[in-house]
Amino acid sequence: MWVYKTGRSEEKKMVLYQFENDRKYDRASDYLEGFNGVIQSDGYQAYANIKDIKNMGCFAHIRRKLVEVMDVAPKGTVIKETQTYKMYQLINKLFYLEKVYDKKYKKDYDRITRERKTKSLPVLEEFYEIVKTVAPHTPKKSHLDTAMTYAINNEKYLRYYIEDGRVEISNNSAERCCKSFVIGRKNFLFSNSINGAKASGAAYSIIESAKINGLKPYEYIEYILTRMTGNKLTADLLKKIMPWSEELPKNLYKNKKA
């Protein structure tokens, strides 16, 4: 299941679940044909090769890899004295700065870009100084080697967030949407057919899109089914029942009074 989620700067917020038989490059390029913007991912190379798309990396992934390194450190290692811990703390500082920017500047993405260039970039430079010092002396196929290889191979994609305040430091919000499907799959134990899997993707797209727009999923689905029943499915009707439509009844929202 491929999952696509709009970025935080988009007014029309949605989550799309697209079932495919595999993770081939063509799946992403075909689905994103005509899209010209930024894709933030876990470092999967298929996205990096799509024309007219800027690729943004995920700092949560490199942080997890550093945690794995510390978890398997030999007994007696003073973790806080290791280079791995220093890199881990620098990544934590980048995440902390993001919280500060989000709280102070909210949707002022130009200001966030300036703050990143002034305050986050020096931290990122220090991180990569350590990476490039440690990497050449790292045992091959070790946990640390995996972390350093990821950091080096994705450097230009990880650095991109400095240039664009709209993008987040990680794709955790999209991964949470993936988690919803994974939990559901554990309960309903897979799909028996391709059509069933595609239907699951459509259902999850509606439910998760409703949630990120502040709607109550059950009530929203009930509403759109009622509106669609007996009516011609026109572009105008679809526009009115989209989860971001301003024409939706207030009782569909979690925090709006009817």
From TrEMBL:
InterPro entries: IS66_C, Transposase-related, Transposase_IS66_central. Residues 205-244 form the Transposase IS66 C-terminal domain. Pfam families: DDE_Tnp_IS66, DDE_Tnp_IS66_C. Residues 1-198 form the Transposase IS66 central domain. It comes from the Bacteria. This is Uncharacterized protein. It comes from Faecalibacillus intestinalis.
